[in-house]
Design brief:
The chain is an alpha+beta fold. It folds into five domains: about 190 residues, no CATH class; about 190 residues, Hect, E3 ligase catalytic domains (Hect, E3 ligase catalytic domain fold); about 80 residues, no CATH class; about 60 residues, no CATH class; about 280 residues, Trypsin-like serine proteases (Thrombin, subunit H, Beta Barrel), CATH 2.40.10. The protein has 28 helices and 23 strands. The strands form seven sheets. Strands 9-10-11-23-22-21 form a six-stranded antiparallel beta barrel. It has a six-stranded antiparallel barrel with strand order 15-16-17-20-19-18. Strands 1-2 form a two-stranded parallel ribbon. Strand 9 and strand 10 form a beta hairpin. The N and C termini lie far apart (about 100 Å).
Length: about 850
């Protein structure tokens, strides 16, 4: 009896297994039929009865789906409309990673309109949906939802790690990646991340020589290369961290920093900036960017290698390390600020790269062959009409127009390569032109294939490849880099107000300015300023801390202040010229009683500046106005005109006299906005605050320009130069929040010419001997002038057109007003008016 019972149980188990296999096979066949309908717009196909038959059971009566409804809707949707509807659904469905069907999605679709007229207001951002009747959009959304419920059951039973071409089934499913909801992909993908995470609690140290990275001129000096050499060998395991975990502990050599997260984030930001710069040979600015034409001018493409030679192993491994960093970003949500084109992301998810993808980064890439093909087509049409000899006319066309062209191609980096062996010596003729066009297009489409494949290998060593191949290019880019825009509404949801609320008037104005008046680049700069990162998390759940807005408490009228222009100069009159004694660093409240401004003491940094530039020389109550008559024979410290400065203890500042401060510089970031001040140190160097440029010091130089020779910011006589190198003092650290060593030098691409130019003047700085006296320069009580284009008011103000000047006095660092702000009196000094009104 026991044997009979055992056989019966075994038979029943086999039947259940068979039924389960039959059910899986049935679902796969249903999915393939639906994919054919979605992806093949040229023919109408009946949906499987089993698919529609389960819609009522799965979706309920409110979301009933019939073949007649599908047929009517099908005519309204092409690939573009499908894509926009999927984008609309992904952006409005909460990405909560819960299995389908899910009540929140049911509710979302139920709330869609059943009206038979279009809703141009609801779909104002989706041009392809604006003219489609709302009822058909709802029907199409129900079709997508039901498709996703079926495919979510099938996907765990399929090996998606197979390469393209290895399985027709996998290829068909991956071809429908655009129709799979993000919540479907991420729910499955997240499960695999959890199963493959690192269980080790050990967090390795990576030692960064930031001085070497800042001053070095070789790729081996960069932060990226330093991290690569120390962590590449074990990155495939060490980078498999969970959300908000650190993949390494950043140790900045000589900085004495304790990595509580800030140095780690800073190291990632700096490495990303290096990748998209000329500091590393891995990526180059795309052709559109180099010619400043077309779209995607800010995109960096993989560097080009000879097609008939292997890529050196060192470059292969560095590309793999880039992929490993991408995997780390996906797992930990420490996003990367890299600007790569769509073609790179497409290849990473094994999606086909098209000619349109190449033209997106090089608008001229196919211009010549497209024009020649058009010319040949016109010749053939004319000859057919005139019964002429097509071959003779085509040969004449090639000999007259393309006689110097051979079987070669100019790469995206500007090198010329043979398309076939001996191609440099094979002229293009009518007989071989089609072959040339085929090889030319093949080269351009595959130009970066090997480099990106190494990146893909690194990525797949940190995150499982299976479900990642279902991502679209844009979804992968968002997972690695965050959204392509700064979501202000999301930031508002994660903001803490220490003394106010979201409805307070000045808080409302703050959000209005940030969301309506700031460009995307300015919003990114704002995030760098307050957070040290240029992107927000993708989801609300990914915020590990809140953005805090604290009110500035003041006993006086803060609107009467002249906030100092960070990076600008504070100068002392020497009797015949102005000497710069400091750099405006920061102040808790520029005109607030008891809160004077803090300035970097320049005398301490003379040797450091000289080591970099090697190009510059040493050079009580008064009347209502004082005129400071400059010695024009001095090599520094004098403008074209004398300074006239109010010396009474007024609140705020005043417009400067035209051409009186000819050494003052305006630092401008993207879109030519004034951001900080500075001074001319020499023909090639600008002196400013490290705080102004610390997040742009690696790779961001191309975004900075400096303007000199003007008192009015819009003076057409101003001289503008691009910055090509930034030198930040090696011991400066924004994370420390004490602003020690807040000093930086900027090197301009093209030197300034002082000869016969009265609008330009060098700033005077001299060495203090003996060095121990630097702490006394300037002496307490010295009368100084602060210069800059700082805001005239703290709220509701714009940057003034005219250069501003204000008189202040140095204050003893032991004074109660300075004790909480001066962290090191040897490096910093305090200046202002004790009762407020200046600073």
């Amino acid at each position: 009896m026991d044997l009979a019972f055992a056989l019966f149980e075994r038979h029943k188990e086999l039947i259940l297994t068979l039924n389960e296999c039959l059910s899986d096979t049935r679902d796969i066949l249903i999915i393939l039929d639906v994919i054919n309908i979605l992806t093949n717009k040229t023919k109408q196909t009946q949906l499987p009865e089993l698919f529609l038959g389960q819609s009522n059971a799965i979706l309920g009566e409110k979301l009933l789906l019939t073949q007649e409804m599908i047929d009517t809707t099908h005519t309204y949707f092409d690939r573009m409309a499908d894509g926009q509807l999927m984008k609309f659904m992904n952006q409005n469905i909460n990405l909560d990673w819960h299995p389908l069907p899910h009540e929140s999605i049911n509710q979302f679709i139920e709330n869609l309109s059943d009206e038979s007229v279009p809703d141009s207001t609801k779909y104002i951002s989706y041009t392809c949906l604006c003219d489609i009747p709302s009822v058909h959009i709802k029907t199409r959304a129900k079709l997508y939802y039901l498709f996703n419920i079926f495919i979510e059951k099938v996907l765990p039973r399929i090996d998606l790690s197979l390469s393209p071409g290895d399985s027709i089934l996998i290829d068909r499913i991956q071809s429908a990646r655009n129709y799979i909801l993000s919540t479907t992909k991420f729910q499955l993908f997240n499960d695999t991340l959890v199963k493959t995470r690192s269980t080790s609690e050990f967090c390795p140290d990576i030692k960064f020589d930031t001085v070497k990275a800042s001053l070095g001129e070789h790729p081996e000096d960069t932060m990226f290369y330093q991290a690569y050499k120390q962590s590449y060998s074990n990155a495939s395991r060490a980078f498999r961290r969970t959300m908000d975990e650190r993949a390494w502990t950043a140790v900045f050599i000589g900085m004495h920093s304790n990595d509580g997260g800030g140095p780690y984030r800073d190291s990632i930001t700096r490495m990303c900036a290096e990748l998209c710069s000329t500091k590393l040979p891995l990526f180059i600015l795309c052709p559109n960017g180099r010619t400043n034409s077309g779209s995607n001018c800010d995109r960096w493409i993989p560097n080009v290698f000879p097609p008939n030679r292997p890529i050196p192993d060192e470059f292969k491994n560095q590309y793999r390390f880039v992929g490993q960093l991408m995997g780390m970003a996906i797992r930990t949500r420490n996003l990367l600020d890299v600007r790569f084109p769509t073609l790179l992301w497409k290849q990473l998810v094994q999606e086909k790269v098209t000619i349109e993808d190449i033209e997106a980064i090089d608008m001229q890439s196919f211009t010549i062959i497209n024009q020649m093909e058009e010319n040949i087509k016109q010749v053939k049409i004319l000859n057919e009409c005139e019964d002429g000899n097509v071959n003779d006319d085509c040969d004449y066309l090639f000999s007259s127009i393309m006689s110097e062209l051979t079987f070669d191609v100019v790469s995206s980096a500007g090198q010329t390569y043979e398309l076939i062996p001996g191609g440099f010596h094979i002229p293009i003729t009518a007989a071989n032109f089609e072959d040339y066009c085929m090889r030319y297009r093949q080269y351009r489409i595959n130009e970066f294939h090997r480099q990106i494949d190494f990146i893909r290998q690194g990525l797949y060593s940190v995150v499982p490849s299976a479900y990642l191949t279902l991502f679209t290019a844009s979804e992968l880019e968002e997972a690695v880099c965050g959204k392509g825009y700064i979501d202000i509404e999301m930031l508002k949801r994660h903001t803490y107000y220490s003394s106010d609320s979201e409805t307070t008037s000045h808080i409302s104005r703050f959000w209005s300015v940030l969301s309506e008046m700031f460009s995307e680049e300015q919003k990114k700069l704002f995030l760098i300023f307050v957070w040290g990162r240029s992107t927000l998390p993708n989801r609300d759940e990914d915020f590990s801390s809140s953005f805090t807005i604290a009110r500035l408490e003041t006993s006086g009228n803060v609107d009467d202040a002249l906030p100092s222009d960070s990076g600008g100069p504070i100068l002392q009159w020497l009797g015949d010229r102005w000497e710069q004694v400091g750099i405006t660093s920061f102040g808790k409240g520029c005109a607030v009683k008891g809160d004077p401004g803090i300035y970097t003491r320049l005398a301490y940094y003379f040797d450091w500046m000289e080591s970099i530039t090697n190009a510059w020389s040493n050079t009580s109550t008064a009347l209502p106005h004082v005129v400071y008559r400059c010695d024009r024979t001095s090599t520094c410290g004098c403008g074209q005109n004398d300074v006239t400065l109010l010396s009474s203890r007024i609140v705020g500042g005043e417009d400067a006299v035209e051409a009186s401060w000819s050494m003052v510089v305006s630092l401008r970031f993207p879109e030519a906005f004034h951001q900080c001040g500075g001074t001319l140190l020499s023909e090639s160097f600008i002196l400013t605050a490290a705080y102004c440029v610390d997040n742009l010091s690696i790779g961001g130089e191309m975004n900075i320009t400096v303007a000199v020779g003007m008192t009015n910011r819009f003076d057409p006589r101003q001289i503008i130069r691009e910055v090509d190198r930034i030198y930040i003092h090696p011991n400066y650290s924004r994370e420390a929040r004490d602003y020690r060593n807040d000093i930086a030098l900027l090197h301009v691409k093209t030197p300034f010419i002082y000869t016969n130019n009265p609008l330009l003047a060098k700033s005077c700085i001299h060495r203090i001997d003996p060095p121990e006296l630097t702490i006394q320069h300037p002496r307490n009580g010295s009368r100084l002038a602060v210069i800059g284009w700082g805001f005239l008011k703290s709220i509701g103000s714009t940057i003034p057109e005219m250069l501003q000047q204000v008189q202040v006095y140095t204050i003893d660092h032991d004074h109660p007003a300075c004790l909480d702000s001066i962290y090191d009196p040897q490096l910093q000094f305090c200046a202002g008016i004790i009762e407020g009104g200046k600073g």
